[in-house]
Design brief:
Number of helices: 15
Strand content: 15-25%
Number of strands: 13
Strand order of the largest sheet: 2-8-7-6-5-3-4
Shape: globular
Length: 347
Amino acid sequence: MIYFHNDYSEGCHERILKKLTQTNLEQTPGYGTDNYCAEAAMLIRKACGREDLAVHFLVGGTQANLTVIDAALRPHQGAIGAVSAHINAHETGAVEATGHKVIGLPSLDGKITAEQVRRTVEAHWASDSFEHTVQPKLVYISNPTELGTLYSLAELEALSAVCREKRLYLFLDGARLGYGLAAKGNDVTLHDIARLCDVFYIGGTKVGALFGEAVVISNPAIGEDFRYLVKQHGGMLAKGRLLGLQFQALFEDGLYFEIAAHADELADQIRSTLDEIGAPYLVPGVTNQIFPILPDNFLEELGKNFMFTEQERVDAHHRAVRFCTSWATTQENVDALCAEFRRLAGN
């Protein structure tokens, strides 16, 4: 069985594993106060083009999301996001468990617009009973989104502008950020994200690390007492240097961007084959996630040798599914998948 169902099936990149092995018996301070975490934070600040950023290393994406949102919001406030947003659809109510409602906005492509945010906020304050409803205070987006789509620089700037006008925080979930930054046609950089967002995180778990996310805070209001909340939410790893070492390896020589570009390139090859056989898409994309619509009998045969993720049923005989490449995907496996596509399509 060849796996294309996610981008975290393998362990970690060999350079990370080598660094972990070489330093295994070193003694360092705990809880992220070691030199490796300090070096990794410095490298991330450099990549973002800002020396004033606060960088904190957490273990996973759900933990990063709920900790950031809890740090940003007062008890009566909530987070705006797409209905398909990870915090709304795939985190078992983790944000709600901290006491903060997720305010879902309709979206067909995983993105929300500045105009949607404006209407939502203005409708809240225009209501005669505004104090009886959750106050929108934070906008949550992910880039790439759950559907593999990307925000353009213009869209991100518009969201940032409306958030600043309406005094909202803008939070970007970057669980797959590397794959977005490396994608063809992307015009958003880390510098842009650091400039336009109040807080974001750089995903490691899905982009070459064993585990770990780097939360980057540009707004001091969110950063105040942040380590208290990291600890309270179980995110302060005693062996914190394991996180620092991994992000040091990812950012010291451009490895993060190199391996993300590899995954995107292989995904483009899969898309090219799907185009060749005439398969439509649930949504178009340019990152490592691909969402073709294929016949049930085609998918049944394909599933005998390849693992993919069910997305949604489109009609009585067709389903949208997800194929996902990663930093570790091989050319050999992509060639095998593409050959099977052609065989089943009769090409």
